[in-house]
Design goal:
Elements: E1 3-4, H1 15-27, H2 37-57, E2 64-67, H3 70-84, E3 91-95, H4 100-111, E4 115-119, H5 129-135, E5 140-144, H6 158-167, E6 173-177, H7 189-192, E7 196-200, E8 211-215, H8 241-256, H9 258-279, E9 284-285, E10 294-298, H10 304-312, E11 316-317, H11 331-335, H12 340-344, E12 346-350, H13 357-373
Helix pairs in contact: 1-8, 2-8, 3-4, 5-6, 9-13
């Protein structure tokens, strides 16, 4: 039996999303730009899906543009924002614990003459609005802060940061990577006060290969892809109708079950911590992430990659950090300035509504066995 506890990396596609994708491929396979009936049915599928995503975000449907993934949404938001605000200045504010889909474009912009301020977290992984206020300048063109950190579960104060920008009458655009926050913590784009917000389908039980970017009405970004003029002329290319339909179906399921799933995830996380304290006295929690679906722990003295492989051999799947690192040290955990033994032993456990206490028990049994059978490192 498998126990999948790596839902921050990706989630199982839910049955409703599978059914929606199959229906779109079999019945609504036309090109949404075609003017015959098959094309119009596909166009209506895309339109209906856009309305579903917009409703979940608290946005207007015209403010939602479909993309291929969260990474594309982040890249477009960052590059588009600095291009739109090129006359404001060449200063960007972000955090040292952002996803690489934000950090790598920012580093590339530094090579093109931009100055980037990387806000450092405290030892619990928190970044404050006061830090943004201190870093804000007249020439700040963009502030990009994630909603939920994908490795710690920390919820960042995006709404407070938006308030700072308003009070200072800053011309900076505010972008939020909400890939790990969407359908995991309650929010609307209006409550956050953001100009741009990125989400991804495969984090919420939709297929890989579909995401979206919220662009606040009145914010006109440069077109990301040129060609046939799809997505309001902002992102050309024939829309992937099946993925879009599946994304909407998964979001509808997530919205319908949101309160119950929040309670379930909160209970499961608390149960995991209680069992860890009972069975693994040397294990420690990393950070104080409030998001109910992500828990970072460390087994000081053990190599996390070795523990991940050990658990995998027993059908228990967790990660040593973001899947995008592919075995490289996590910049997020490094930013917390953990000592080397703690840093080497970090694991990320991440839940979804399908997980049970039996999954947690299997994880704890595997970690106990790992402690008994694996040698500690000499680092």
């Amino acid at each position: 039996m498998e126990h999948y506890l790596d839902n921050a990396a990706t989630t199982r596609v839910c049955p409703a999303a599978v059914a929606a994708a199959v229906a779109a491929m079999e019945n609504n396979f036309g090109n949404p730009s075609s003017r015959h009936e098959a094309g119009k049915r596909a166009e209506q599928t895309v339109k209906s899906a856009r309305e579903v995503i917009a409703k979940a975000l608290g946005a207007d449907s015209g403010e939602v543009v479909f993309t291929s993934c969260g990474t594309e949404s982040d890249n477009w938001a960052i590059r588009g924002a600095v291009e739109r605000n090129r006359r404001v200045g060449k200063h960007i504010i972000t955090t040292a614990i952002e996803h690489d889909a934000v950090l790598v474009p920012c580093r590339q912009l530094e090579q093109q003459g931009y100055e980037v301020t990387y806000l450092q977290p405290d030892k619990q992984g928190n970044v404050t609005a006061a830090q943004v206020a201190e870093a804000l300048r007249e020439d700040t063109a963009l502030v990009s802060v994630m909603l939920v950190n994908n490795e710690l579960g920390t919820v960042l104060p995006v709404a407070e940061i938006a308030k700072v920008l308003r009070e200072r009458r800053s011309k900076a655009l505010l972008h939020c990577d909400a890939v790990q926050g969407f359908l995991k913590v309650p929010f609307t784009v209006k409550e956050l006060g953001v100009d741009l917000l990125s989400i991804s389908g495969h984090k919420v039980h939709a297929p890989k290969g579909i995401g979206a970017l919220y662009i606040r009405k009145g914010v006109r970004l440069p077109a990301y892809l040129l060609g046939g003029g799809q997505e309001g002329g902002l992102r050309s290319g024939t829309e992937p109708v099946a993925q879009i339909a599946a994304f909407a179906a998964a979001v509808e399921e997530g919205m319908k079950n949101f309160a119950a799933e929040q309670a379930h995830l909160t209970d499961l996380k608390a149960y995991t911590l209680a069992r860890m304290n009972e069975l693994l006295p040397n294990a420690k929690r990393v950070g104080n992430g409030e998001a109910p679906h992500v828990l970072a722990i460390t087994l000081p003295g053990y190599k996390s990659e070795v523990v991940v492989r050990f658990l995998s051999g027993r059908g228990v799947y967790v990660s040593s950090g973001s899947a995008c690192h592919k075995g490289k040290p996590s910049h997020v955990f490094a930013a917390l300035k953990l000592d080397k033994k703690q840093l080497d032993g970090v694991l990320r456990v991440s839940f979804c509504g399908d997980n049970t206490k039996e999954d947690v028990d299997a994880l704890m049994e595997g970690l106990v066995q790992a402690g008994q059978q694996l040698f500690t490192s000499l680092s």
